Amino acid sequence: MNSLPRAVRILAEGIVIIDQTKLPEREVWLSLTTVDAVIDAIARLAVRGAPAIGVAGAGAVWLAALETPDDGFETRFRRTCERIADARPTAINLRFAVERSRDIALLAKSPDDARVRAREAAESLLEQESAASRAMGRWGSSLIAHGERVLTYCNTGWLATTGDGTALSAVYAAHNEGKNIEVFACESRPLLQGARLTAWEMVRAEIPVTLLCDNSVGLLMARGGVDRVLVGADRIARNGDTANKIGTYMVAVLAKRHGIPFHVVAPTTTFDRRIKDGRGIPIEERDESEVLTLRGVPVAAPGARAFAPAFDVTPAELITSIVTERGIIKDVDESGISAVVP
Ligand code: MRU
Q: What is the pTM (predicted TM-score) of this model?
């Protein structure tokens, strides 16, 4: 397989992303040259996936440093960084990336120096996430046997990171190793990241993929059609409770019921050591229109309300292991996690 494209790049004029709202119909690349353009792209999911929005956020911090006048630099710069970090609340990668870049920039002796440092911080995070993605692919693939049928949720591929992905990085690695695997992609309502993005990535890479409605997982598992579940994460608490795309919890419960291994694949930048358990993870609520419509077309009786959480939390007890770039956490509890992510 040829090397995969990079969903987020940092160029001289700004940040270049693939607009994920246009996929799979059209492949549109956007050049984002202002802080507001990046915040808007993150909020409307033009760039999405925890590691990808972390890197985009770090890029926005660089743009913030460029846009902030020398007069009152630190106060204004800090304020803009807060706006970037608040663009989406659940994926901790975004807040960590923004705070890290901000703090590196503010070690500078002058605003000009801060601008240089902010750019270097964004570039180094991008490299770090790409390397993490490669390592997760290797570790994750070591779990997958020849001929396995792997079920996945949402999109965790190159679109969601700056490398080959998280859970899908393992799928790409297993495929490249000739393991003859097959992917089952849940459509991931309401915004269909599985149908629009994961199926598109798999088809492009010539990896056999079957799409299923989220409510078909139980039947498929009951018929013995799934060997392993691999998903990504937006935030992992100290005890291993994991926030990921809404519906992931439902899949984890079903996997437990059917004795199917359920793995989370996430870089160490997704672990939130400040939060004891899943109850502390903020769950993003999206606009009701995302449930009441399907790609802009109304699907509900006029006047109906909608419940539109973007994420749910899978309790640690349902997770077989967590794959990170540093290795596989087999004991998904506070001490097992601390040994790999101190
Ligand atoms: O709302 P999204 O599309 O940004 O949600 C993304 C997910 O839930 C992914 O599974 C998660 O970010 C981990 S994959 C890199």
A: 0.97
- What is the CATH T-level fold of the domain 135-338, as seen in this structure? Rossmann fold (3.40.50)
Residue 234 is among the residues annotated as catalytic for this protein: yes
Topology match between the domains 8-133 and 135-338: no
List per-block mean pLDDT (blocks of 10 residues) for the chain, which spans 342 residues: 89 96 98 98 98 98 98 98 98 98 98 98 98 98 98 98 98 98 98 98 98 98 98 98 98 98 98 98 98 96 98 98 98 98 95
Ligand 1 pocket test, candidate residues 48, 191, 263, most atoms within 8 A of CB: 48
Q: Determine how many CB atoms are found less than 10 A away from the CB of residue 182.
A: 18
Give residue limits of the domains in the chain.
8-133, 135-338
DSSP percent split of the chain into helix, strand, coil, nearest 5: 45, 15, 40
- The architecture of the domain spanning 8-133 is Up-down Bundle (1.20)
pLDDT of residue 213: 98
The pLDDT value given to residue 2: 63
| DSSP annotation string for 155-222 | --SGGGSSSS-SHHHHHHHHHHTT---EEEEE--TTTTIIIIIIHHHHHHTT--EEEE-GGGHHHHHH
Buried residues in 244-271 as b, exposed as e (16+ CB within 10 A): bbbbbbbbbbbbbebebebbbbbbebbb
β partners of residue 29: 18
Active-site entry in 214, 234, 241, 312: 234
Query: Which residues, including other chains, have CB under 8 Å from residue 82's CB and lie 6 or more apart?
Result: none
CA atoms within 13 A on the CB side of 152: 35
With beta carbons less than 8 A apart as the criterion, state whether 328 and 143 touch: yes
Measured in degrees and rounded to the nearest 5, phi and psi for residue 322 equal -115, 125
